Amino acid sequence: MFRPRFLLLSLGNPAPYYETLHSAGHFALNSAQKALRGSQLPFTYTDLGGKKCLASLTASSSSPSYIMIQSPTLMNVCGPWVAKAYREQLQMHNLKPSELSLVLVHDDLEEDFGSVKLRKWKASHRGHNGVKSVNASLKPAEFPGARWSRISIGIDRPEARDQQSVANYVLRRMTRYQKDVIDAKIGPRVIGCLRSLQDDWEEDFDKASSDP
């Protein structure tokens, strides 16, 4: 029986930068777990990719399988860990790349704060060092049939566009208002993106099953 499975990996930074704008992907994943209202287990620490990280699993066998994991590494060098964690999940669950859709959840300087957008894997990284690191470490040719996507979380952008101003901005601690917006509004939008991916996947599966 066909059952969509998704591995959601959020990119961000560990402490002391966990609560910064650059870690908006982590907070979006926390909000998504809450939005699933009991069908998704709370985040707990687990060993994955050689590091301790926060992970959440689907609680019900009747719902789509969501594995939510927050990258525990520094944003700019997260690619090797993401690649290792993805391979481990495939092996752990005895799945082919075509059976576990990888979805990166990350912040986006080019979008208004609170916006949530589904992006194709090959869409521009827009200078995002975390996405660039993952692209350098995960080669689609090594994972036949893989379905990879990205969900971006808008965090606005500083007026000054020099490298130091941008770095200072993304490492700014989120305000209480910003945290509340993500907690209340972003999760349902992330789930909406996932359901869109699920619909496309099921449609492709139905077409393949009906082909002579």
Automatic annotation (TrEMBL):
Assigned EC number: 3.1.1.29
MF terms in GO: peptidyl-tRNA hydrolase activity; tRNA binding
Keyword hit for Cytoplasm: no
Keywords tagged on the record: Hydrolase, RNA-binding, tRNA-binding
Manganese found in the keyword field: no
Origin: domain of life: Eukaryota
EC supergroup of this enzyme: hydrolase
PANTHER family, per the entry: PEPTIDYL-TRNA HYDROLASE (PTHR17224)
Family named by the database record: Belongs to the PTH family.
Identification of the protein by name: peptidyl-tRNA hydrolase
